[in-house]
Structure to design on (199 residues):
């Protein structure tokens, strides 16, 4: 994978800075690692891969500001952040890049049933929350789902309400970006795609 090779090439110091146990995820712009203190490290590469003329410095400033806000505010429905920083920056073939990280609480995948529930109550088409259920409407939907799926309805309702009312909006709202704590509480991940909701 291009991003993995890029991280290894420009971030040889990574294993020295963080005690990595294993790689637990990778995507289009980075990798996720389990650390030996049972926290998770996400490392992202910010570069204009498609050469669209994106200002990498401005893009990174926006992401950094949101991550700092999330760390400070610690919203209860979003994964807890412990620290964040820059690992490397420079130019590759005249193309500016930044490799940054954030370290967060370890979470666990949804069950297949829970994934189906969130596929029903949030949009998985355009990745925005477009299904604005009133509480009684959501109750009806969840009661219907309870006939064939196993999940904790009260925790889904709480999480849904938090997403609707939070000042932080996720631009890639998809069931794969929802995980859960050991207690079964849901949290949003993939924080590079968060913005402040317009009032």
């Amino acid at each position: 994978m291009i991003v993995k090779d890029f991280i290894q090439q420009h971030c040889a110091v990574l294993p020295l800075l963080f005690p990595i146990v294993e790689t637990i995820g990778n995507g289009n712009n980075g990798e996720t690692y389990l650390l030996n203190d049972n926290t998770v490290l996400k490392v992202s590469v910010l570069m204009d891969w498609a050469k669209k003329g994106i200002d990498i410095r401005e893009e990174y400033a926006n992401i950094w500001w949101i991550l700092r806000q999330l760390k400070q505010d610690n919203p209860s429905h979003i994964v807890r952040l412990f620290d964040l920083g820059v690992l490397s920056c420079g130019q590759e073939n005249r193309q500016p890049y930044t490799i940054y990280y954030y370290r967060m609480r370890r979470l666990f995948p949804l069950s297949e049933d829970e994934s189906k529930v969130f596929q029903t109550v949030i949009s998985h088409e355009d990745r925005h929350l477009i299904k604005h259920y009133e509480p009684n409407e959501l109750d009806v939907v969840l009661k219907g789902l309870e006939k064939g799926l196993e999940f904790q309805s009260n925790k889904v309702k709480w999480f849904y309400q938090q997403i609707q009312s939070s000042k932080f909006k996720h631009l890639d709202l998809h069931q794969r970006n929802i995980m859960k704590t050991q207690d079964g509480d849901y949290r949003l991940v993939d924080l590079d795609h968060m913005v402040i909701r317009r009032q």
